[in-house]
Amino acid sequence: GVAAYRAHRADAVIGLGGGAALDVAKAIALMAVHSGDVLEYAWDHPKVRPIERDLPYFVALPTTAGTGSEVGRSSVISDDVTHVKKIIFSPRLLAKAVFADPELTLDLPPHITAATGMDALTHNVESYLSPAYHPLCDGIALEGVRIAAKALRRAVREPHNLQARADMLMSSMMGAIAFQKDLGAVHSCAHALGTVADMHHGLANGIMIDHVMRFNLPSAVDKMAELAHVAGAGVAGALPEASAEAFIDWLAALKAELSIPATLSAYASKRPVTRADIAALVDVAINDTCHQTNPRARE
């Protein structure tokens, strides 16, 4: 990509695709005007390089509604050797223009719509549950959950429902804005599953979300009760504990409707997740930073 940019003496980069494609476009824009290896710009590199030059004009056109990379200031790059995801952060990575056109998502297959939609929902849920203080992000995250709760099923069942597709794009962008506050253990688990088993990130979030929410429940009753309310899963007059449980039950039911496997053991793939993977999964998840802002600390 960088070679093509230079060969054509280009002055702009256009990213068209899902989250991975948009992240690659950001990396191309970065390396078009910087030297070294792209992983040297990851925030946790031992000799991290500064992003000190303005990047080429970058335009983002998302074709999925999941990562929200089009409005994010980061690029996620997988290490070719370890397969661990590395993150490059900088406001310079932000797109100068975003065209979030729902028509670009109309022909997404149902399973991709479901998996990317669960990614968007997870971003909003985990951002809201993070104990970090950011009321603006909390408000955005709650509205993102409300929108996804109404639109995700319709987008999967009625792929050419333009309003449902538009709503999912909005929820996706809201989740990406909200998670500037931070994420949680669902993402640490998903990053581990992506690294060890090459699982699709949104699908991994979808499989893990209700299980992590049940783990989080003792430390996030009131917030989960509010999530139940905005998702339409709450029961009028119920105690917060009951509403919080209802939110987790709602997540499990949503997964079933979207054909998201209920558990890792139910995940059928050429590369299944087995007990032999547990040690490697735990190692990657523990070393991931997302769980540091989980509402309940690991034990």
Helix content: 40-55%
CATH-defined topology of the largest domain: Dehydroquinate synthase-like, alpha domain
Q: Mind telling me which CATH architecture of the largest domain this is?
A: Up-down Bundle
Radius of gyration: 19 Å
Number of helices: 10
The fraction of residues assigned to DSSP E strands is 5-15%
The CATH fourth-level homologous superfamily of the largest domain? Dehydroquinate synthase-like - alpha domain
Keywords:
single chain; mainly alpha; Rossmann fold; Dehydroquinate synthase-like, alpha domain; 2 domains; two-stranded antiparallel ribbon; 10 helices; 5 strands
Describe the structure concisely for a colleague.
By secondary structure, this protein is mostly helical.
What would your notes on this structure say?
This protein has 299 residues and is mainly alpha-helical. It is 49% helix and 8% strand. Helix 3 runs antiparallel to helix 4 (135-157). It has 2 domains: 2-100, Rossmann fold; 107-293, Dehydroquinate synthase-like, alpha domain, CATH 1.20.1090. Strand 3 (74-78) and strand 4 (85-89) form a beta hairpin. The chain is globular and about 65 Å long. The strands form 2 sheets. Strands 1-2-5 form a 3-stranded parallel sheet, with helices on one face. A two-stranded antiparallel sheet has the order 3-4. It contains 10 helices and 5 strands; from the N terminus they run H-E-H-E-E-E-E-H-H-H-H-H-H-H-H.
